[in-house]
Design goal:
The protein has 75 residues and is an all-beta fold. The chain has one domain. It has no helices and five strands. The strands form two sheets. Strands 1-4-5 form a three-stranded antiparallel sheet, with no helix packed on it. The protein has a two-stranded antiparallel sheet with strand order 2-3. It is globular and about 40 Å long. The structure holds zinc ion (ZN).
Amino acid sequence: MKCPFCDTEMLQGYLNCGLALWSTRKHKISLLPDDKEQYAFRLKQPIASPNHVSSSYCPRCKRMIIDCTEYESNI
Ligand SMILES: [Zn+2]
């Protein structure tokens, strides 16, 4: 896939991570979203190995793209 910002061919890989939350607000302690909060990407802590989030990375402008359609969201 080509980077939509600079048209460079992107690298395919995985975001290896534990708990994660993309939200419209900052969380200071817990990553638990509240009732009014909008979030687009929520990963729970895996039991054994990290989560593997398929994603693309641009080596030129250092941006990352994640397709969030398969992840928990309320938007
Ligand atoms: Zn780019």
